[in-house]
Amino acid sequence: MKYLVAMLLSIAFSSLPSHHAQASEWGCEVLLCAASSNPSWHGVETCHPPMEKLILAMKTPGFSWPTCPEGGAGKPGYVKYVDCPAGWAPVARDDPRDKGFSSEASRCTRKVMTCRGGRGFSRFAGKGHTETMADGVTRVRAGNSSCVYTEYKPRALRSEPYYFDIKDEATGQPNRFWFDLQK
């Protein structure tokens, strides 16, 4: 990591024409600070001015990410939620109270089979049942004799939802650097 940051610093700030350096200097500062992981940019005093400038600039109409062509990075990626656990899949909330506005996959879901020896599960009366467990998982059964139910649980938000993929010159493989934009 230290070598990667040192390499990016040397590329970004050496032998650039002055007009190009002024145009991309802020973008390269943002890239270097975002790639700082131990400590994060929050723990690097020199990263506060360019990152706080970025956070402020993001609030203005027509905002465009500052780029660092010398570092091989443009606009970062953004992933709001952590991945669902193994065996679960992301799904959009289909609550009728959302009125169709929530199309992001903010929950994880899975089907669970509880049948044993071909016998149905008949604990619940009626044409379907929903229950929320102590751990926040919601179970939805299709009917009173169904041995298959669907579970849903909310997806956690990432603490560092932005990322840059920076190609490692030695291996040619991209390294992903996650970061946040919280003051």
What this model shows, in words?
- This protein is α+β, with helices and mostly antiparallel strands.
- It has three helices and eight strands.
- The strands form two sheets. Strands 2-3-6-5-4 form a five-stranded antiparallel β-sheet, with no helix packed on it.
- Strand 5 and strand 6 form a beta hairpin.
- Helix 1 packs antiparallel against helix 2.
- The radius of gyration is 24 Å and the shape is elongated.
Which features does this protein show?
alpha+beta, single chain, 5-stranded antiparallel β-sheet, 21% strand, 3-stranded antiparallel β-sheet, 183 residues
Which outline best applies? elongated
Main beta sheet: strand number and arrangement?
5 strands, antiparallel
SSE-based structural type: alpha+beta
Strand fraction: 15-25%
**Stretches where pLDDT falls below 50 for ≥5 residues?**
1-20
Lateral strand order in the biggest sheet = 2-3-6-5-4
What is the radius of gyration computed over CA atoms, rounded to a whole number of angstroms? Answer: 24 Å
Overall pLDDT, averaged?
78
Tell me the series of helices and strands, N- to C-terminal.
HHHEEEEEEEE
Record field, number of beta strands: 8
Helix content percent band: 10-25%
Structure annotation, total helices = 3
